[in-house]
User: Which sequence fits this backbone?
């Protein structure tokens, strides 16, 4: 497999140069993502001994992931690839190829066969093309369901900033139970350290019966209502009256739990908050925390913005949620945005933070853009799984096909490995900052800037490289 991302041009920090050198395994480009429906002139640099050895004799083939060639013709069983004309300039192979549609485009470099061989050795390199609406977006990694010692977590909230960066996160919410005390502490640590980490205000929200668990992001005040006060009883009575008509077969105590949950959820969303239904199939003490009838009712109505399809504390139950969402989609045509959550209560265990996360495709990862991205299905839920030989992990993704496909490419091309090494370097410096060493702030800020530059270097819209495809 050819190298992940390699960055060339001006001199960058030594850490980034070292990472790129370690990653290099073959002919490479400066960027990985290009505009769709363009004609691109691509300069593949020779970066390895294999490249240099075969530079004068290597041939270049091409095929799209939909089994079509640059002219749009379908690939048959033979040939497997379209052979491209290429020229050699200043240590680079230069090819010009039409890049039609949103696809992964693969280039194969074919060395001449050796003595007694029928075929030469092959090496591959892939790029991706995006339509204009997606090309202007950028990838960000984040997590928004975890706890500090403000509620039932182990570490103080400011430590979440360090561990989030060690885990490779670009945005974060610490959602203690029924609390917002942690939010300004986390925001200050992220800001004052120069981390570049974007933080969202949040809480894990509950109703009086503690049956509803939901992540509430961006609300101006605490939204949990954990006591059955006379005011709450009066507020839910109109909802309860409607539920008695709608659900006559259900016991009134269960209807009341639904009514209270609906009131709390609607109150939160009316404040402008984003509401995510948490771990629908959590099963403590041999029974579901929320009765299945409760969960089905909540997920067939429109009182939430998204559903946790994966929760790191209960990953063995995640596929029950996937099955229920599939069933609801078949019955009602309801398409839920889905998210993944660590629900981490011990954030110093960075492996847990790395296991469940989300990829947001947006102009930036500010909270307003997060809200838009979630509702437009531009957020992809990720869950790490172990591969067959049990030596390495890799993620599986849930969400809209278009962005799951893009997320898969970014993982395979190595972008996140490079990104996460830079954020991990930040994490060790943030630890020093949290212990009182302010001298590390310039280094943390430079790494934050380098993370942003690496993200931008994924994309190439240079008119010298890509030109509009003529009809």
Assistant:
């Amino acid at each position: 497999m050819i190298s992940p991302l390699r960055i060339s041009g001006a001199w960058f920090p030594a850490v980034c140069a070292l990472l790129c050198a370690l990653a290099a395994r073959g002919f490479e480009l400066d960027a990985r993502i290009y505009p769709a429906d363009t004609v691109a002139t691509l300069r593949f640099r020779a970066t390895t001994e294999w490249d240099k050895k075969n530079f004068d004799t290597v041939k270049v083939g091409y095929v799209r992931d939909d089994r079509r060639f640059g002219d749009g013709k379908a690939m048959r069983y033979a040939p497997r690839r379209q052979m491209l004309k290429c020229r050699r300039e200043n240590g680079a192979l230069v090819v010009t190829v039409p890049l039609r549609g949103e696809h992964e485009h693969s280039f194969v470099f074919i060395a001449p066969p050796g003595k007694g061989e029928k075929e030469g050795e092959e090496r591959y390199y892939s790029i991706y093309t995006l339509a204009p609406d997606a090309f202007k977006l950028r990838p960000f990694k984040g997590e928004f369901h975890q706890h500090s010692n403000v509620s039932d977590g182990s570490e103080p909230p400011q430590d979440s900033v360090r561990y989030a960066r060690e885990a490779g996160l670009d945005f974060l919410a610490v959602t203690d139970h029924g609390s917002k005390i942690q939010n300004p502490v986390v925001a200050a640590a992220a800001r004052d350290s120069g981390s570049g980490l974007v933080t969202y205000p949040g809480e894990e929200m509950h109703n009086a019966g503690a049956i509803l668990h939901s992540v509430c992001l961006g609300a101006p005040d605490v939204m949990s209502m954990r006591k059955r006060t006379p005011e709450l009883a009066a507020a839910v009575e109109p909802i309860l009256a409607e539920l008695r008509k709608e659900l006559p077969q259900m016991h009134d105590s269960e209807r009341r739990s639904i009514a209270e949950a609906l009131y709390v959820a609607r109150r939160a969303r009316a404040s402008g908050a984003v509401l995510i239904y948490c771990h629908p199939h959590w099963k403590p003490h041999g029974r579901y925390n929320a009765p299945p009838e409760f969960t089905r009712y909540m997920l067939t109505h429109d009182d939430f913005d998204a559903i946790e399809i994966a929760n790191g504390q209960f990953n063995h139950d995640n596929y029950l949620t996937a099955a229920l969402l599939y069933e609801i989609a078949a019955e009602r045509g309801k398409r839920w945005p889905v998210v993944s959550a660590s629900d981490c209560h011990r954030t110093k265990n960075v492996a847990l933070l790395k296991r469940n996360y989300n990829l947001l495709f947006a102009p930036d990862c500010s909270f307003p853009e997060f809200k838009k991205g979630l509702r437009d299905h531009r957020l992809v839920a990720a869950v790490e799984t172990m591969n067959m030989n049990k030596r390495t992990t890799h993620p599986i993704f849930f969400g809209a096909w278009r962005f799951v496909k893009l997320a898969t490419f970014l993982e395979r091309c190595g972008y996140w490995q490079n990104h996460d090494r830079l954020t991990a370097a930040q994490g060790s410096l943030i630890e020093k900052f949290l212990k009182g060493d302010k001298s590390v702030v310039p280094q943390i800020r430079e790494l934050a800037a380098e993370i942003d530059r690496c993200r931008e270097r994924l994309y190439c819209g240079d008119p010298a490289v890509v030109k509009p495809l003529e009809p």
About this structure: The CA atoms of residues 40 and 428 lie 41 Å apart.
